[in-house]
Hints:
The complex is a heterodimer. Chain A is an all-alpha fold. Chain A contains 5 helices and no strands. The termini of chain A are close together. Chain B is mainly alpha-helical. Chain B has 5 helices and 2 strands; from the N terminus they run βαααααβ. A two-stranded antiparallel sheet of chain B has the order 1-2. The longest helix of chain B is centred in the last third of the chain and has 11 residues, at 42-52. The model of chain B has no long low-confidence stretch (mean pLDDT 92). Classes of the chains: A mainly alpha, B mainly alpha.
Amino acid sequence: xxxxxxxxxxxxxxxxxxxxxxxxxxxxxxxxxxxxxxxxxxxxxxxxxxxxxxxxxxxxxxxxxxxxxxxxxxxxxxxxxxxxxxxxxxxxxxxxxxxxxxxxxxxxxxxxxxxxxxxxxxxxxxxxxxxxxxxxx
Amino acid sequence: xxxxxxxxxxxxxxxxxxxxxxxxxxxxxxxxxxxxxxxxxxxxxxxxxxxxxxxxxxxxxxxxxxx
Lengths: 137, 67
């Protein structure tokens, strides 16, 4: 099983980040919600940073980069991540339901609906992944 | 599941770091395997057996849980 951030993704991350920064600049020119522009610019900057650091590590410290790659693909690390992920899934499902209930008590209808939608997406993604893996494995 | 990994590794004078590098796993995985805290996948078990030129069942000893 391959890790989510594959080594092929690192070299294109700065380019993707620059694209996001460009989109956020265009959106700000079109007078779109400034918070959304800032959000996109922030993600773009983070991707540029991650990509540049990834490339620098690969060039300047190849042994460390190789060790990082081994650690990423290490089966024990992957099993630990999977187990942690399953616990995180339960905790976040519970958090979403608590959040929806709190918003309901506070009479924030829109926020409550959004929290329920997020919870639905969260659970639906679990069942889609379950269905796909049952077919695949 | 018990294993003879530590014994065999020491017999051959290989460090955990070297074995980890050869098997392309982390050093912590080798440590966990030796302590019996972690059971390897079948692929890793084959890699280990191939490295020591032995059969899997000569390295890993399966024990059923007492009922």
